Amino acid sequence: MTQQPPFRGEHLRSALALAASGVPVLPLRAGKVPFGNCPACADNACGGRSNMKTPGPCVCPGPCHAWAAATTDSNVINSVPWRHAWRRAGAVAYHPGGAGLTVVDLDNADAIAWAHKHLPATQTVPTTRGEHWLYLGTMTSANGVRPGVDIKSTMAYARWLGFGTGTMTDLPHVVHALTAAKPVAPALTTVTVPAPAGGGQCRHRTPAYLERGIAMAEQRITDATSGVHNAVYRTFLAVLSTHGRCGCLTEDHITRLFTAAQTKGESARHCTDAWTNARTRLGL
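RESULT FIELD:
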């Protein structure tokens, strides 16, 4: 007869306590990952739940579908299939979005230092390698929004590690901004031109010269108070007329210009159109 693993009663008790306070919970296997789908739900044959903003329509009695299995129903949490999972559980997890929360997962010391500098103080929970910062409010989850920083809210799960310290505050705009779409710069086409008279390196490749030119262009766009479309186009035209033929512009430089333009309200499409039109006018 196969011996059953010891029952992890502390995980079940924690889960029931969290559920009673309105926090949807689920068990995690060793390794801090959800239990896999049962055979009936494999490959989402049941219709699935993980693509939906809220769990459903699958009514599998086991803890299937990862974050979407999270529940506050004590009858489900204490049911036979779930108790079998608790026997093998390595931890308790919860669905932050289902509880009206967002977790900023800081994975290392550098990320924590960044949070102290840029984010408002809130409830913090120590993790194995860093900290969880908990805010009131929900948003779209995203991984790798910056080095060592993940956002866990809707359609995600976070490991329950206790209540931590501090007072939870409202989700700030700066956290929302971390998941904003990054501007995509158009592909570069390098045009080969003769070397400067007398030989030597193109002066545009001098870091200080190029950096000053890009910084001035960013400022010109930022300072525009009217006619933003025209200001963006003329700025792109000026940059390309000076730096567009020698191949010294990089994707980072163009992204900086696009970012400045989008900050003033330009769409990514308008930025691309303005850049293309400037290149066409200059014959690049």
